[in-house]
Amino acid sequence: MNNPTSNKRVVALISGRGTNLQALLDAPAHWLGGRVEHVISNIPDVSGLDRARAAGAETTVIPHRSFESREAFDTELIKTVLKAEPDLVLLAGFMRILTPIFIEPLVGRMLNIHPSLLPEFPGLSTHRRAIEAGHDMHGATVHFVTQELDGGPLILQARVAVNEDDTEESLSARVLTREHEIFPLASRWFLHGRLRLEGEHATFDGEPLLKPLDLDKLLATTR
Length: 223
Ligand code: GRF
Known about the structure:
The protein has helices at about 20-25, 30, 45-55, 70-85, 100-105, 125-130, 170-190, 215-220, and strands at about 10-15, 35-40, 60, 90, 110-115, 135-145, 155-160, 195-200, 200-205, 205-210, 215.
């Protein structure tokens, strides 16, 4: 029997290798509550597009370099995304700053994965910055996308201990494995109707999330 919640449509935006996309493609539709139907990249020929095609998702390349302005690019992007009628839009390693033209129509149904424990280290080079700051904990965050760069309501985090001998590469590899745990899980919650954006707050099972959920604490309480 078909589970109707498996029919939800997910559109993913990528700019590169697409390992977070792969984690979403690998999630069974009945578990996730939907499928990644369409993958859009702003860079041609990235390996994430091959992953999408191999999984049978539709792909579109919208090269940002062909557009005169950020606004012109975002206008084309939002047109393509809305045509796909998504229930959920995922920024799965999409390395472009977005304007309100793109963000506004999707507020409340767009999630981003960011490689830091937000609000620490928004922006780029998060792993190097965490090491340089001498932090002993680092990690990844899923959040709703709003106008503020890496600043929308936080949903779910996973922590990684920083070792004394960590390099940017070794730390980013460990954080990445945790990204692959939390991005599909938060997407699942959204598609199953457990996660919402209500005003300024994310809500989970109807309760406002005053701080993000922590994956390890959740796992410890469900064990
Ligand atoms: C990830 O670290 C993600 O958090 C960041 O960009 C990277 C993309 O990696 N936004 P991948 O393309 O998913 O492998």
